Amino acid sequence: DVQLQASGGGLVQAGGSLRLSCAAFGFTFDDYAIAWFRQAPGKEREGVSCISNSDGNTYYDDSVKGRFTISSDNAKNTVYLQMNSLKPDDTAVYYCGRTTVCSTYPREYDYWGQGTQVTVSS
Predict the structure, then answer these.
(1) Phi/psi at 2 (nearest 5 deg)?
(2) Which of the four pLDDT bands, split at 50, 70 and 90, describes residue 29?
(3) HEC assignment per residue over the chain
(4) pLDDT at 74 over 90
(5) Count of alpha carbons within 13 Å of 11, Cβ hemisphere only?
């Protein structure tokens, strides 16, 4: 069946880097958009970045623009999020989700990965 698996999180100091991966299974990867959301304790799930695999368009939240880069390897059915210059405010569980068109609304995503924890210490 359809499955997304997020990985690559960890504990880093401020200014460090992490590379997250979202591996997709069970559907035609090129027909969908994949987004990264994050959720901190007590906060709403917020959109971080999205890539449309059909046309290659990318989107970034203002809080991460210039520091994070999203990319896709359609042959491997995998989306990556390269995170540089990490800040303590980036600490959250990061989820990848599937949709047809990139959106900042979580309700537009029909499948989610299990999430991976990113912790940035000061």
Answers:
(1) -65, 135
(2) confident
(3) CCEEEEECCEEEECCCCEEEEEEEECCCHHHCEEEEEEECCCCCCEEEEEEECCCCCEEECCCCCCCEEEEEEHHHCEEEEEECCCCHHHCEEEEEEEECCCCCCHHHCCEECCCEEEEEEC
(4) no
(5) 2
